[in-house]
Design goal:
Blueprint lengths: L3 E8 L3 E3 L12 H11 L4 E5 H8 L2 H4 L7 H12 L1 E5 L11 E4 L3 H10 L5 E4 L2 H9 L5 E7 L7 E2 L10 E8 L5 E7 L2
Parallel strand pairs: 1-6, 1-7, 3-4, 3-6, 4-5
Antiparallel strand pairs: 2-8, 7-10, 9-10
Length: 189
């Protein structure tokens, strides 16, 4: 069975964005890009909420063709164009979208169907509202967190309205030269 792994940058105090959605506090460098690039190449499905998907769509399809495109831009743009995208949205429609499926109802049933299909893990990128919905329905199987050395004080939390404890097992850790620490967890069932 495929797993849904939430990939998220997070502040030390548990926020994934500032109170206005700002992410200017996120620390990334080539070392992180290389590490993430290797790991996501193993994935064949990316899961997004509508807002994150629209942000991705505004950049990645043409990122590789820009004159100042970095190696990361070229590699990630290529991956993005081939990976199957699933978007959780109550307002979007599938029509005219390439390699993209919209889930707008029956979240539990449809996501469980996805998890039953053959393929690699499904990577949930950012998308705090979608993450909250999936957590509420116990559909996330692991967390791939990049803890940034910053305390925001307020903002959009990664975890909210948690009804039951979620026990996790630490799989790996890694510290990057920019001060970010990767923590990779799987549910401890």
């Amino acid at each position: 069975m495929r797993k849904i792994i939430s990939f998220m940058h997070i502040s030390l105090d548990g926020f994934v964005a500032g109170s206005n959605g700002e992410m200017d506090w996120i620390n990334v460098n080539e070392e992180i890009f290389d590490h993430v690039g290797k790991r996501i190449k193993e994935g064949d499905t990316a899961l997004y909420g509508r807002i994150t998907y629209q942000m991705m769509e505004s950049y990645w399809p043409t990122a590789a063709s820009k004159p100042d495109a970095s190696r990361h831009d070229i590699e990630h743009s290529k991956w993005y164009s081939t990976v199957h995208k699933i978007v959780l949205s109550k307002t979007m429609k599938d029509e005219g979208l390439t390699n993209t499926t919209i889930i707008n109802d029956n979240l539990l049933e449809k996501v469980n169907e996805l998890k039953q299909q053959n393929g690699a893990d499904i990577l949930l990128f950012g998308s705090p509202q979608a993450t909250h919905s999936l957590i509420e329905k116990n559909l996330i199987d692991g967390y791939w967190l990049f803890v940034n050395p910053v305390i925001l004080g307020n903002g959009i939390p990664l975890f909210k309205n948690i009804k039951d404890r979620i026990r996790l097992k630490l799989l790996t850790t890694r510290q990057f030269s920019c001060g970010v620490t990767e923590l990779s967890y799987i549910l401890d069932k």
